[in-house]
Structure formats: C-alpha cells, structure tokens
Amino acid sequence: MQAVGADSEDYLAIEEDRIAFVGSGPFWLDIEIFELEISSCLNISEQELSSDKIQALESAVDLYIGDLLEGVYQDWCLYDREHLRLLYVNTLHKIMAYHILGGNIPHGLDCGQRLLELDETQELVHRQMMRLYLRQGDRRSAIAQYKHCYQILQQELGISPTRETRDLYREILAGNSISASEMILNPTMTDKGSLIRQALGRLHSLQRSVEETRTELKSLEKVISQVLAEMRH
C-alpha cells in the first residue's frame, strides 16, 4: 500500500491473528468491473449493440491483461481463471462480429489478433480473419492466414483444418469474393467438433502443467527431507 501512496489502515484491518481487506475503502477492482460490464451485454446480440455498449465492452476487455494467477493450480483458481478467460474470449468474438457488420475491417482484424494471441488453435478466428483479409482485397494475407492456421493445428493438436476452412482457402485461391452477410455465421457441427478438440487440447495442456508442478513439489520435498536428515546428524 505504501508503494501507491496509500495508508495501510485505509485498506487493511490488521489484528493479532488475521489480516482482512477493508471493502469500504476507496478502491476499484478490475475483475469486478470486467465482469459487470460484460454481464450487462450477455443477452445483447452484436446486431443490437449500441456504440456506447461497444465502447464499454472494449474498455472491459482492455482490463484483461493475462490469465488470473497464472502458475497457480489450486481448484478454485483454475475455475475462476477459466471463467474469466471464457468471458474475455466470448466478448472479443462479439466485438469482432460487431465491427465486421459495421464494415470496420481493421478493428475486426485487431480482435482476431488478440484472440489468437490467447490461443492460436482457434480455427474459427483464423477463418474469420481469412474472410476479413479477402473482403479487404488482401488475398496474400488471407492465404498466409490459412497456412499459419494449418501449421498451428498440426503442431499443437495434430489435426488438419476442417472442411469449411479448406473450402474457404480454395475459394480464395480461385479469386472469389465474399459479402458481409456471409461473414457472420453460426458455428456448424464441424465447427463445434473443432472447438471440442481445441478445448481438449487446452485441458491436456493444463493437466500436464499440474503434473509438472506435482513432480517439482515432490522433488523439493525430497531435497528438504534430505537436508533436514543431514542437519540432525
């Protein structure tokens, strides 16, 4: 508290056996604002969003600067981390769809880049970006996006792009154009299968992290036990 120029008494109730946070003090919590702003728009489609609402959502997603307590693998933390991450991903998808409908291609591409920075295996996002580049007249970038998508899916999940993505790639190679109405589509069953495979890939990644942490803890426990045994002698 001293580092930000605040008195500890304004925020901390310190007693002999416990320390508590004083919620009545002057503060704001980024997670609280993030969840409130996004929750207020959960039942509003991208077609119905006002400019004020989209600004509020964009301000909210800007508060998300990384996973909650990354590196901590306790059950409560994993749940909250994935909950916030899912809110962030779904909101970016909604903002991206809003800008696509409004013809704001640069903003749509920016949302796509942010989504892929979080998880490059999101094939739906790769496909939307291919469509955006194509609508912009940038076939070279659309083709490069497909190749990047193919490489990532092979490396991370050991799968190939779905038929929808391959068909879009062939349309781009053939020089076909795409209208704005074709760019906002509900996920097909193939898309949903791809999302499930991607979710399983992330689950396996989390499981590996947990197992690595457990192994490291066991190693540390062994080292500490050895040191204590030597000290006794």
What's the helix count?
8
**Main beta-sheet annotation:** 2 strands, antiparallel
In angstroms, what is the radius of gyration? Answer: 23 Å
Portion in helices? 55-70%
Mean pLDDT: 81
Taken from the alpha-carbon principal axes, the silhouette is flat
Spatial strand order of the main sheet: 1-2
Low-confidence stretches: 1-5, 184-192
Structure class: mainly alpha
Distance between the termini: 44 Å
Tell me the total number of β-strands.
2
Order of helical and strand elements = EEHHHHHHHH
Describe the 3D structure.
The chain is an all-alpha fold. About 65% of the residues lie in helices and about 5% in strands. The chain has eight helices and two strands; from the N terminus they run ββαααααααα. A two-stranded antiparallel sheet has the order 1-2. β1 and β2 (about 20) form a beta hairpin. α3 runs antiparallel to α4 (about 105-120). The longest helix is centred in the last third of the chain and has 44 residues, at about 190-230. The radius of gyration is 23 Å and the shape is flat. The two termini are about 45 Å apart. Mean pLDDT is about 80; it is low at about 1-5 and about 185-190.
At a glance:
By secondary structure, the protein is an all-alpha fold. It has helices spanning 30-39, 51-62, 75-101, 105-118, 123-135, 139-157, 163-173, 189-232, and strands at residues 12-14, 19-21.
